Amino acid sequence: MDNPTAVTGPDPGVIADAAAALDQLGLALSVFDGESRLRLANEAFAAIYRLAPGQVRAGMTLAEIVALREAANTGPAMAARDYVAWRARVAQAAQRFESRVELRDGRSLVIVHQSLPDGGWVSTHEDVTERQRRELQSRQLGWNDPATGLASNAVLAARLEALARPGAEMPVAVLVFDIDRFKSVTQMLGLGLEARETTQALLRQIAERLSKVAGGSALLARLAADRFVLVQTGETQPQAARTAAWAMQQALDAPFEAGGRRLLLHASVGIALAAEYGGVGACLARADLALLRAKSEGGGRIRFYEPEMDAHHHRSQALEMDLRHALENGEFEIHYQPFLDLLTNEIVGFEALARWRHPARGMVPPTDFIPLAEQTGLIEKLGSWVLETACRTVALWPGAPSIAVNLSPVQVRNPMIVATVQEALRRSGLEASRLELEITEGVLLCDGPGSLATLQRLKSLGVRISMDDFGTGYSSLGYLRNFAFDRIKIDRSFVSGLPASRDCAAIVNAILGLGRSLGIAVTAEGVETTDQLERMRQEGCDEAQGYLISRPLPAEQARALLAGRMAQALPA
Ligand code: C2E
Ligand code: MG
Ligand code: MG
Questions:
Q1: What is the third-level CATH fold of 323-562?
Q2: What is the model's pTM?
Q3: Burial class of residue 172 in the structure, from the number of CB atoms within 10 Å of its CB (0-12 exposed, 13-18 middle, 19+ buried)
């Protein structure tokens, strides 16, 4: 033969050297010949089976070695005879064979078997018990978020803990991402198992896009529902955090597909830097506060943590506690702000504006407590109270003025609002045509057909529906096509720009033109000067509301104002 080693197998000397080398790695090795007798085993082999080095000798059969192992409680978990027969079959059948073998003492080994040309075999034996235990533990602890495959809360906590240890000083930024109005999106996708799966698929798409731009060294984890966290270490801050936040917002820009719909999603981002205001420990909570601020500013924003946010948070938490009792304690009242008919110059109606007289803090503005009431679900009770009180109060006023009540998107999302309105009308005796419900486009945004159907049902009661703060949302125009509004209220930010700002003038004129051609009445909000009032009158606006005409007034004063104007209007 040209090449004798190819027939007889590897040179035993070489194998012995290799076996010694494997000892260094703690990898056990055994070589058997064509007669199933041990040709060679390294020290690690004896060690792995808890045998003394001298016990394992060349020339032993596999069955003899297994007998030694049984005495040392390291025999195979299966019957020894079956094991030996199985190994012999493997030796004949397979070139290379990898198997996992359980031992009597509870350990698991991975044995890789390679046949040799002389009918013998070489095998390596590795104890994988510890690795297996760690894998199992990590699965039980949930190192991975099952829905998205991103790192889980547990990993995030471990990473932050490690970074918070003394001596681990390096720049750390924690970024918290949250999809704006995600709850509305999931509500739109519906209920039931199928909708849940669609939501999970959507979250996976979001996670995929985020991880593409996360950057290799950063940790991306999923905190909860639609909340994701990025931890950056060792980067130049705050630039790196800002860049990552932008990149991730952009990554979400392209429409998503879910349940056969195209969805536009935006994310808000809160960022906390460990170097500022001390330590990694509080970073996640601070990034959360910054996120809260970003969201309260309308979403789609990036905000860095500032210490002032703590104070604000504590204040709003305390306020939330108080809000829960405010209604029972009779701390709410309603102020009424009149609408002026620009053609007749008469007061034709009032808007009901909720006021909270806090026993210690004094008057709390609705811009502070309405969002809080919405978050806590108290808005439904508060809203019903405002609705009924306003209807009752104004029902008895002279001249049958109309009454406008603001509805929060949260109220409209609950179909029960129809019954609530019906009940308020019935109890107060107010004719439906005198009630106007003001909604903002937040009601229609992402809410799909549910809210629209509710608005239709409200309209069929005979009440009117107006769109409040028109022009401040980003798709107000589209909603005019979807629903037959009775009134548009031009947001006061445009009116207050008059007459100086040409842009505001152009927008106001465009809205008035729109109202005329669609046959929708238009009210100008926030009229503060006679200039603005005259301007609105000249441009053909129907009604005006604002401090010039009157500030919101307590019920008695509003009624007196109405009665006084009516008396003035009477011929002398
Ligand atoms: P809104 O519905 O747009 O109400 C108009 C707001 O503009 C009122 O603020 C009013 O006092 C103010 N305003 C009226 N005329 C002028 C003016 O000439 N100049 C200026 N600078 N402001 C003027 P307010 O009472 O603080 O209410 C703020 C918002 O809170 C309301 O905006 C409304 O969205 C909400 N809100 C108030 N009461 C309720 C309620 O009972 N339910 C709900 N869901 N929201 C309410
Ligand atoms: Mg309003
Ligand atoms: Mg408004």
A1: TIM Barrel (3.20.20)
A2: 0.64
A3: buried
Take atom 4 of ligand 1 and give the residue whose Cα is closest: 353
526's CB contacts (< 8 A; 6+ apart) are 491, 492, 493, 495, 496, 545, 546, 547
363 lines ligand 1 (CB under 6 A): no
> Number of C-alpha atoms within 13 angstroms, CB side, residue 60?
17
More confident of the two residues 381 and 145: 381
DSSP-based three-state secondary structure for 208:
helix
pLDDT of residue 502: 92
Class of domain 4-128: alpha beta
**Cα–Cα distance between 221 and 185 in angstroms, integer?**
22
**Domain topology for 144-306:** Alpha-Beta Plaits (3.30.70)
Residue 299 has pLDDT above 90, yes or no: no
Q: What is the pLDDT of residue 4?
A: 32
Residue appearing with tokens 């109606």? 349
Query: Which ranges of 43-146 would DSSP assign to H, the alpha helix?
Result: 43-48, 62-71, 80-93, 129-141
Atom of ligand 1 nearest to the CA of 366: 30
Rounded to whole angstroms, how far apart are CA atoms 50 and 71?
10
Please name which ligand lies nearest the alpha carbon of 552.
1
